[in-house]
Every structure is written in C-alpha cells, then in structure tokens.
C-alpha cells in the first residue's frame, strides 16, 4: 500500500534531503546525518540491477551505508534488495486525515501555537528527544509555508513539532513531548493546532508518518481521525 500521488509528493517535499542525485530509476538522498528518511534511495521510475549498483555507489561516495526506502507493495524492488542481503528496518505507516476532522473543536487557551521561526525552547525540546541538530537542519531548509508547533501543559512548554504545506496537503513531522508530560493529550492538541494553521492556508488534508512499532502514537492519531494511507520500510545492511 502506498499513498496517493498528492500525499506522496507532500511527504517528500516537506522533509527534503540535503541533496539528491538521480541514479537511473532511483533518486538517492544525501542526509548529512539527518536519518534514514533523507539518506535513502527511492524508486522514481523503471530500474534495473545496474541502477541499484549505481545507487549503492552514490551512497558510498557520500559515506552513507546503502539504504533504500520501499513501499510495501513494491514487491519486485523488495525481492531484488533482499536478494542482495539488504534487510527490512523500521516499518513505518503513513497516516492521513481530512483537515476538518481536527478542527471541530476549539483548542484550550495557551495550549498550542504554530509559529516561525522556532523558539529556543522548541529546539531544546527537539534536542531532548530524537530531533538532533541535523534533523533540525532539515526543518530549516523546508520552503515556506511552514510552522513550528509549541505545546504547553501545566504552565510550561512541554512539546514541539513541525508542520509544512505542499499544495493542499499539510505534513507533520518531528513531534516530541517531554517524557514527564506524555500521555496527557498534549500531542493531540498540537496536531489540532497544525490542522488549524494549515486550514487557514487552504489545506484540505493532513498527514504524518509513524513507526509501526509505536502503537501508542498510532492510537492517538487514529482517535483524531487519521487512517492508514501507506506503509514502507527501509532496506539496508543488518544492524
């Protein structure tokens, strides 16, 4: 299963690699230390074994391990990669919802904000989680319109996230809530704030990606109206 073309385009445009190079049927991303999403090769046209070789060579030239991102329905590519000894890592689900599903109630005062540029406290919250400086550099290079999400609970800043718009689809990335404030509904209000921001700019849909192992987050998003829109995994050397 893979997202429809508009959602897939927004997924790529709102979390871009440092640079990309076309290798036959693949587009290879240079992530500059920002993680697998931007450091992987994706199929963008017909490909052959020589294209896989060329993509692996490009990864090596950048000092990256060979890594491919394949939608679960791309069975030919998955078979070719596994035949080379590249195994599946981090199965991930893409979810999407109509904007209207998240804008049906008011956000409590001083609970969530959408601002740009990010405040120092938002960068600190990201840094306390998995959003390293290299990942924050991805956020910085995304073209406008975009916003940094700030979540507050019990009179303190406790959550940060990122939302960007591509055509009429908003994508949310980099959601972090400080451990002491999790499971208290803050992530849900931040998602609603992202939807309100996007709706004001004409968006009709909102999407995100979440690890399939993170069942708690998936349940939170499902409660907001998100449904599965695609699934993929990374294929690379054994850890």
From TrEMBL:
Domain (N-acetyltransferase) ranges: 105-239
**Membrane-traversing stretches:** none
Claim: Acyltransferase is one of the keywords in the record: yes
A GO molecular function assigned to this protein is: acyltransferase activity, transferring groups other than amino-acyl groups
| Keyword vocabulary terms for this entry | Acyltransferase, Transferase
What is the superkingdom listed in this entry's lineage? Answer: Bacteria
Name listed for the protein in its UniProt record: GNAT family N-acetyltransferase
Which species expresses this protein natively?
Paracoccus haeundaensis
């Amino acid at each position: 299963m893979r997202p429809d073309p508009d959602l897939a385009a927004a997924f790529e445009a709102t979390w871009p690699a440092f640079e990309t190079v076309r290798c036959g049927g693949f587009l290879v991303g240079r992530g500059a230390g920002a993680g697998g999403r931007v450091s992987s090769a994706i199929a963008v046209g017909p490909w052959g074994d020589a294209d896989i070789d060329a993509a692996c060579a490009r990864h090596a030239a950048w000092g990256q391990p060979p890594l491919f991102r394949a939608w679960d329905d791309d069975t030919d590519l998955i078979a070719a990669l596994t035949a080379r000894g590249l195994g599946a890592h981090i199965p991930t689900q893409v979810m999407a919802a109509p904007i209207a599903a998240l804008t049906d109630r008011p956000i409590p005062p001083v609970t969530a904000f959408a601002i740009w540029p990010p405040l120092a406290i938002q960068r600190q919250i990201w840094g306390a989680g998995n959003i390293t400086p290299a990942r924050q550099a991805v956020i910085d290079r995304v073209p406008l319109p975009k916003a940094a999400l700030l979540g507050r609970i019990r009179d303190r800043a406790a959550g940060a996230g990122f939302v960007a718009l591509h055509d009429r689809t908003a994508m949310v990335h980099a959601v972090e809530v400080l451990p002491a404030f999790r499971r208290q509904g803050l992530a849900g209000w931040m998602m609603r704030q992202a939807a309100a921001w996007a709706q004001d700019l004409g968006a009709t849909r909102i999407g995100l990606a979440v690890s399939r192992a993170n069942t708690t987050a998936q349940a939170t998003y499902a409660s907001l109206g998100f449904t599965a829109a695609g699934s993929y995994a990374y294929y690379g050397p054994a850890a």
